[in-house]
Design a protein that fits this description.
With about 160 residues, the protein is an all-beta fold. About 0% of the residues lie in helices and about 50% in strands. It has strands spanning about 1-10, 20-30, 30-40, 50-55, 65-70, 80-85, 85-90, 95-100, 105-115, 120-130, 140, 155. The chain is globular, with a radius of gyration of 15 Å. The structure holds calcium ion (CA) (2 copies). One calcium ion binds near residues 56, 58, 63 and 65.
Length: about 160
């Protein structure tokens, strides 16, 4: 069983290939699967980007407790870290996560084992993608608005 949710974003408001089109979350009994769709995800560093998926697992603590952060150019690092008031903190040791990027279909897929985030009953997300404009400036696109949290999604 999995509870799934899809969250649409405005297309084209960020002038980079990383502009978020939509975010899909499947919360299964084993993992969170987060798929993001973008304007144009590119493998090369010059037009590169990054993504951060903030995960809120505890409604009694302000803000998210974890973040999955990744570069989106080919071969980039990725990892799961603890967060404190939206600040990125220490890496989660032995985190069971994976990243795959589909440069043909402009999609990023993130998998986070539930065991790596304390086996939460429900989660909600905030997602931001950062890309590079033609002039080299960085620009961020949040799902909906800055630090917007989705609704809670249970593990079904
Ligand atoms: Ca967008
Ligand atoms: Ca929280």
């Amino acid at each position: 069983m999995a509870d799934t949710a899809e969250f649409k974003d405005v297309r084209g408001e960020a002038r980079t290939g990383m502009d978020i089109h939509d975010v899909r979350l499947a919360h299964t009994d084993r993992a969170l699967i987060v798929k993001t769709a973008h304007d144009d995800v590119r493998p090369t560093l010059r037009s590169g980007g990054s993504i951060a998926v903030f995960v809120d697992v505890d409604p009694h603590r302000r803000g998210p407790e974890y973040a999955f952060v990744a570069g989106t150019t080919r071969g980039s690092d990725f990892g799961l870290v603890e967060t404190d008031g939206w600040r990125l903190g220490d890496a989660v040791r032995h985190a069971d996560t994976s990243l795959s990027i589909d440069y043909e279909n402009e999609r990023v897929r993130v998998r986070i084992a539930r065991s790596s985030i304390g086996d939460p009953d429900e989660v909600r997300l905030a997602v931001v993608a950062q890309g590079t404009r033609r002039n080299g400036e960085l620009e961020s696109d949040w799902l909906r608005t800055i630090r917007h949290m989705t609704r809670w999604v249970t593990s079904g």
